[in-house]
Amino acid sequence: DPTPVVEPVPPAPSVPEPPVEQAPPLPTLNDSDSEVLGALSDALGREAVEGFLIPDHVVRKGVVTIDNLPGEIVATRIRAVRPTGGGFSVSVDDGRFTLSPDNYARYEAFVRMVGSIDVDQAMGVYARYYPLLQEAYEELGYPSSQFNDRVVQVIDDLLSAPEPHSPIDLVRPRALYQFADPDLEALSAGQKVLVRMGPDNARAIKAKLREIRQALVDRSRTLATG
């Protein structure tokens, strides 16, 4: 019998690899406000960004605000977040000043916004603009330190804030009220904010901070290996 002729099988057409998208170059630190605000609006919502963030020098103010939270004060001129609406609420009873529970309501909108943050989305923005955050941090005088490590330190300071039982006594030695308890008055600026916003609001903020902290620790491992 004649040997059958086997027709050669043409090779399968090669499938081109999809092109790897290159991230566009970052803006300079001085010209970054518009792009960073847009990215934050995509991640957090435009209403949150417009309602709570001061829209100029966003990266620099964000970095210096975070860096200052474990200190005694965060100066108004460098804050990244708008002041809390409404006046500081104090209860007065027979000459005794205490922190009014009515004061806690001033922080509720901010706490809801923080609680709604999608950490994965937020970390995407953080990773994209981390070189600018690091540049701004180095401008503060930390050329050999990672901003990511500082953020974890600041979160740890906030998480260690006490949750004192009400009523919280106040004194007014000058124009502004202070905590009567010297241990409370000695707290960092960030810890005092958590005390002033009330225990329920503080617990909600701390819960989100724990999520963010874990994401930042994961990023620290990436920085260490990459």
**Count of runs of 4 or more consecutive helical residues:** 9
Low-confidence stretches: none
- Write out the strand line-up for the largest beta sheet, numbering strands in chain order: 1-2-3-4
Largest sheet: 4 strands, antiparallel
**Average predicted confidence as pLDDT:** 90
The number of distinct β-strands equals: 4
**Based on helices, strands and strand pairing, what is the structural class?**
mainly alpha
Structure write-up:
The protein has 226 residues and is mostly helical. 49% of the residues lie in helices and 6% in strands. It is built from 9 helices and 4 strands. It has helices at 33-44, 46-52, 58-68, 108-115, 119-139, 147-159, 182-185, 189-196, 199-225; strands at 90-93, 96-99, 169-171, 178-179. Strands 1-2-3-4 form a 4-stranded antiparallel beta sheet. Strand 1 and strand 2 form a beta hairpin. Helix 1 (33-44) packs antiparallel against helix 5 (119-139). The mean pLDDT is 90.
List keywords for this structure.
about 230 residues; mainly alpha; 9 helices; elongated
Short characterization:
This protein is mostly helical. The chain has helices at 33-44, 46-52, 58-68, 108-115, 119-139, 147-159, 182-185, 189-196, 199-225, and strands at residues 90-93, 96-99, 169-171, 178-179. A 4-stranded antiparallel sheet has the order 1-2-3-4.
